[in-house]
Design goal:
38% of the residues lie in helices and 13% in strands. The protein is an alpha/beta fold. It has two domains: 183 residues, Vaccinia Virus protein VP39 (Rossmann fold); 81 residues, DNA polymerase, domain 1, CATH 1.10.150.170. A seven-stranded mixed β-sheet has the order 3-2-1-4-5-7-6, sandwiched between helices.
Amino acid sequence: MSYHEAVMAREALEGLAIRPDGTYVDVTFGGGGHSKLILGQLGEEGRLIAFDQDEDAQRNLIQDNRLEFVPHNFRYLKKFLRVSGVTAVDGILADLGVSSHQLDEASRGFSFRFDHALDMRMHTQGELTAARVLNTYPVESLQAIFSAYGELRNSRTLAEAIVAERGHRELRTIDDLIGIAAPLIRGNRHRYLAQLFQALRIEVNDEMGALKDFLDQAIDVLRPGGRLVVIAYHSVEDRMVKYSMKTGNTEGSMESDFFGHIYRPYRMITKKALQPGAPEIRSNPRSRSAKLRIAERTDEDKPASGA
């Protein structure tokens, strides 16, 4: 099955600074592109643990005794590492966002290119779908989702139009949603719909909640000197990654001990996010909005109390 090319592969692998005998985690296995590259740099004693909640990803499993696959969301990082007998790792890679395969699979409902059911679940056994969000959330909640996760300027107008329309009929398909949004689009139609679908996907899969859980746990499982490499695709998730790397929490608030020493769990390897070059963007359009950040775990423990 075709997924997508591994985004910023060279930069990600260099960022991990792989030790041949180390233990690494790829929390977004997908098509296995990054995992294959990591395995290529590991020796016989090396170990890779890969996470992916999407059932389709399991069709891409690599036959390698050094690889262990965990079919769960990366928000359960610590739990399943503990199940595998792992307490500390040398590096973690996360390639966030939706895969090309998911966008190309019409039945998943991730893309506005196809008319299908309003689904958008990363894990198909999840209860919340895009249809349920659109048909049951109050106007204030819809507005907040479209504004925060999609950065749509007319989020209130769109939310009100959806609530008004669902008063007459249930919204079931992608075309139902596009029919409501189309008269409200100002500017680039493709960009507007991409932002709208992004906002719904993030809500359906609680992507921000999962990312927060993952980042909080990554600090605990990385050994001193271990590397965290994250590729983000929109400002909301990239901001959360940046805050976590700089302050140790996703809110971006500095913490200090009784003596005023500021807690810095990471040493920033990238002062600014790295972005793909023009050749990669041409060959792999998915990389266009990618931002890669790298941080190295220090030996600092979280302060017991603030100053």
